[in-house]
Amino acid sequence: MTASSDLLSRLAERLGEKHVLTAPTDIAPHLVEWRGLFRGSALAVVRPADTDEVAFVVAACAEAGIAIVAQGGNTGLVGGGVPWGGIVLSLGRLSRIRAVDPLSATITVEAGALLAEVQAAADAQGMLFPLSLPSEGSCTIGGNLATNAGGTGVLAYGNMRDLVLGLEVVLADGRVWNGLSALRKDNAGYDLKHLFVGSEGTLGIITASVLKLYPKPSSRAVGFVGLSSPRTALALFEALRRAAGHDLTAFEYIPRYGLDIVLRHRPALPRPLTGDHAAYALVEMSTTRPGADALGDLEVALAAAIENGFVEDAVICASEAQNLNLWSLRENLSDVQSLEGGSIKHDVSVPLARIADFLDAAIAACEAEMPGLRVCAFGHFGDGNIHFNLSQPVGMEKAAFLKQWGRFNRIVHDIVHGMGGSIAAEHGIGLIKRDELVRYGDPVGLDLMRRLKAALDPHDLLNPGKIVASSPNPPPALPRE
């Protein structure tokens, strides 16, 4: 009996045969991520029911020398969850909401819980879990933590690193670190949880977490604003932040091309403004203060911005249904890009003061490189995160366009790096940016990453080949159509 067949027999005996999937049709959905840019391979998909079973699987794989890739909702965007042989450890059965504590403003959940389920559990207790993503109905908390997910609420609440208090993690040798603390103050040594948040399953497998909750807003207002340029968008953001402070809970930038393709492919959504503008912003103010009026505050702030020349036109919603319609324009933007053909994507961040400079420089450089290229640069303006995506020229073959990924990486990432930014804002490194990290990362920082990997996973069995590659033949970093 081979090592792999012996391992599968051991796993089936402990987990049950129905939770050790080996049929190609059962494995296939776990071999490719949402965008379909990478396709891997695996011996099996295993589905443990609890932390003890996860620990058993990891220990057994360590003993057999077989790699493990943990998966949640498999909604990643950088190839980080694609296996290259070994075992896929699906955390979907670890889905319990263990506890909700409104007084401490915490919720304790298992890694396989859907983000939408955690939001709903908090809401049922009159609280808010503020992480919000278009994939919240399918992504899981473990994946959100492993990638340090951001989304539209980072401006007010921070990303997942800011929302976690404690973790439970299975280490590479099968031991369980119980760091499920709800303490807001704890200086007893190193803050170990931050090693695992954003590590993409390369240092340990997160099985549960204690997360922060917030009071639900009592009043919320959403507006859609027409602007002349990214520079006026930046001026508007600064004016709204001065006027609203922490009550400015979202500021999403959308270019004209982005709105055009959403309305083209989602005709049921209403056009928010009658005229066309070079750029748009979706802004949200919300407050928990009793008697406060977010709608009135937004009206006053936008009226002042119009008077000061920052804004060409604006509309403010009068109902929650209208709020949702406006948010749908932003939430559909990622999906509709695929309907325009191939899309080369860059999830980057630059210092807030350089956003307009970055957009001007990167758009000009990319359009000069390929005539007919359509730039869809949008994102979370308030935290410096831009999804700088490039749609293929009309009539160009998709496969031929996607072969230019490396070429455009160099253009965009050089500009980002030159402005003191990051080539990976919220989607992570995974495969697609692994080699880019080597090119642009600080050498000392990269050395520390490799040392951490070697210390916590000395045999390179946890999601090998991702973030920092230590094997001599790592999986390919650029997508292949």
TrEMBL record:
InterPro entries: FAD-bd_oxidored_4_C (IPR004113), FAD-bd_PCMH (IPR016166), FAD-bd_PCMH-like_sf (IPR036318), FAD-bd_PCMH_sub1 (IPR016167), FAD-bd_PCMH_sub2 (IPR016169), FAD-linked_Oxase-like_C (IPR016164), FAD-oxidored/transferase_4 (IPR051264), Oxid_FAD_bind_N (IPR006094). Pfam families: FAD-oxidase_C, FAD_binding_4. It comes from the Bacteria. Residues 38-216 form the FAD-binding PCMH-type domain. Keywords: FAD, Flavoprotein. Belongs to the FAD-binding oxidoreductase/transferase type 4 family. PANTHER family: BLL6224 PROTEIN, D-2-HYDROXYGLUTARATE DEHYDROGENASE, MITOCHONDRIAL. This is FAD-binding oxidoreductase. It comes from Methylobacterium marchantiae.
